[in-house]
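Hi everyone, sorry if this is the wrong subforum. Our group has a chain we'd like a structural model of before ordering constructs, and none of us has done structure prediction before. Sequence below.
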Amino acid sequence: MSAQVELDLVGHIYDAVLEPDRWGDTIDRIRRHLGLQIGAISILHLSSGFSVQASANISPEYIRIAAETSARVPELWGGIEKFASLPLEEPIRMLDHTSPETWAGNPYYEGFARPQGLVDQIVLVLEFNPAMVATFALGVHESMPPISDWQIETVRRLAPHLRRAVLISKLLEARSLASAPFEATLDALGSAVLLVDAGAGIVHT
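Answer:
Right subforum, don't worry. Here is the predicted structure as tokens:
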């Protein structure tokens, strides 16, 4: 049953590429399957701050607070250099890399995480470059048990699909890209990508 649910989740991830309005529902399905409190795909623009692209079980007020305090997020991980060292596509337990004692006073923690009772999270770094950081995160409420190996392994299986979907979505949004650079970028992803048209004809592999 769990395997079929995960296959369905992968399908929902790629559906969201073509219909971005589905991202919120897709993230919520992943969150509920894993039994976690909140979920979000976010982009941190290193020059101008951060925006939540899609989320699940987070009120608009907390999304606003997250955006306003996002510049202080790297401090929770020990600084931007430590955050930059985290591997792409690998699910990370926050408590494996940082201590709650160091979070006190951080505006992001005090304004966003603490009031919602969030005590840990699973984080996927989907992209990291000099201009931006894209992440997928699932938050753990204080009433929930610690993050399990099953939850980590499930996120690990979904990780390459989430990264490909987010990167392809960004490429599809950049309508001014020429065909050759577009294909070259897809080819550089390092994992299989197959694009088809409405008639299931192969457009690019």
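For your construct planning: The longest helix spans residues 149-173. The mean pLDDT is 85.
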